[in-house]
Structure formats: structure tokens, C-alpha cells
Backbone:
């Protein structure tokens, strides 16, 4: 189905607003310019973005310096990942691919925009100026740290599911998603600096959900290609 003009305008407005917000993030956080890190991040992100069906959307992947693993996204296709998160993923691009695809999924599903604007605003903000004004106003009031706050459990599960499909569609190993959560859970201490699962559904719950999704995917592949 072809998108209507208002839908196209809304996507363009979301991207413009996201670009403004990305500028704010770059002002508040230090960007990591390590060439090897940037190359890995860009290559992995580009491979995932190529599998997104809606070609009106574009994506930008940025590495931030920091002292803890984190990843978050902005409306319009901007994905930020900390260097510690990339290092936690190791030399293989597969775990990083899931981290990025999970954030891409939040963008595609509209979760980040819904959270910042609220559903009532989102329903009426179809004109470029309205969307951009509302998004910028939301960030001004809430601050960049708000972008790392929790999504609902339903949204996280939806992003895990779509992210896993995107990861596999781009040729990466979806099983690496479980590796990511296991490593994050191992790092988190009750009084430590890493609080990833204090603002996300529990690690074991996410892992169990991903295992079910992987098993279902394997069954579909087996049924489609019986020996």
C-alpha cells in the first residue's frame, strides 16, 4: 500500500526532529571516533538498514564514549551505542547486530516517538512543524537521559521480536542476542553502576522470550526445508 502524503510528511518531520535531537546528544555526550569501532558499527548498521523495507527511512549509527554498556535511539533513525556496549559484544558483529536491530525496531514501531510525545499528540502531529515542535519541546523538558528510560514490557518484547527477525534477515546469527543479555546480566550488580535490567524486563525473561522465538524460527525453516 502506498503511503499517504501526511504519512510521508510525518516521516520527514520525524527525521528532521531526530536530527535536531541528535545534535543535542552530541553536545551533551562525547562521540567516540576510534576508526576500528566506527567501521564495525557503520558496516553492521548499514547491513541491517538495507533490510528495512520502508526505504523512505534512513538510519545513522553513532558510537558514544562512556563507562557503561548502553544503547538508545532517537526518532527518525538515529541509533547511539556506547563504546563499552560495542566492546561487550566482542569481535563478532553478530551480538552488535542484535543490539542495533533492537533499537531500529523501536524506531520502526514508533516506540521512541510515542514515549516522548504521548499517543494523543502523535495522532494529530501529521504536519512537519507540529511534529518537530513537539519532539524538541519534549526533549527540552525531559533531557537526554530520558531516552534511556524503560519502554513497556510489551514494547521491549516487540522490539526483541522484530530485532531478531531483522538480525537474521541481514545474515547475522540471531543466537547472539542471547549472548548479549547473558553478558549484561553477568555485569550487573545490585549496587553497581550498570542498571540495564532495572529499566528493562529481567534478563532471564528476555532470554526465555528470545529462545522461544529462535525455536519457532528454526521450526519454520525445518518445515520449509525437510530433509
Residues:
Amino acid at each position: 500500500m502506498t503511503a499517504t502524503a501526511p504519512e510521508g510528511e510525518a516521516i520527514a518531520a520525524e527525521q528532521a526532529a531526530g536530527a535536531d535531537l541528535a545534535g543535542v546528544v552530541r553536545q551533551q555526550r562525547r562521540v567516540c571516533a576510534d576508526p576500528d569501532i566506527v567501521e564495525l558499527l557503520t558496516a553492521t548498521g548499514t547491513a541491517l538498514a538495507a533490510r528495512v523495507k520502508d526505504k523512505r527511512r534512513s538510519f545513522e549509527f553513532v558510537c558514544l564514549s562512556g563507562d557503561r554498556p548502553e544503547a538508545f535511539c532517537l526518532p527518525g533513525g538515529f541509533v547511539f551505542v556506547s563504546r563499552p556496549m560495542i566492546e561487550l559484544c566482542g569481535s563478532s558483529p553478530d551480538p552488535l547486530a542484535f543490539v542495533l536491530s533492537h533499537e531500529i525496531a523501536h524506531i520502526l514501531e514508533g516506540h521512541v516517538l510515542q514515549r516522548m510525545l504521548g499517543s494523543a499528540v502523535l495522532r494529530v502531529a501529521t504536519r512537519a512543524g507540529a511534529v518537530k515542535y513537539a519532539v524538541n519541546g519534549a526533549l527540552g523538558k525531559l533531557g537526554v537521559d530520558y531516552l534511556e528510560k524503560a519502554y513497556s514490557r510489551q514494547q521491549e518484547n516487540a522490539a526483541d521480536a522484530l530485532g531478531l527477525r531483522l538480525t537474521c534477515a541481514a545474515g547475522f546469527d540471531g543466537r547472539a542476542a542471547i549472548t548479549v543479555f547473558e553478558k549484561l546480566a553477568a555485569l550487573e550488580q545490585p549496587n553497581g553502576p550498570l542498571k540495564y535490567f532495572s529499566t528493562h524486563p529481567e534478563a532471564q525473561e528476555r532470554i526465555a522470550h528470545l529462545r522461544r522465538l529462535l525455536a519457532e524460527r528454526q521450526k519454520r525453516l525445518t518445515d520449509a526445508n525437510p530433509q
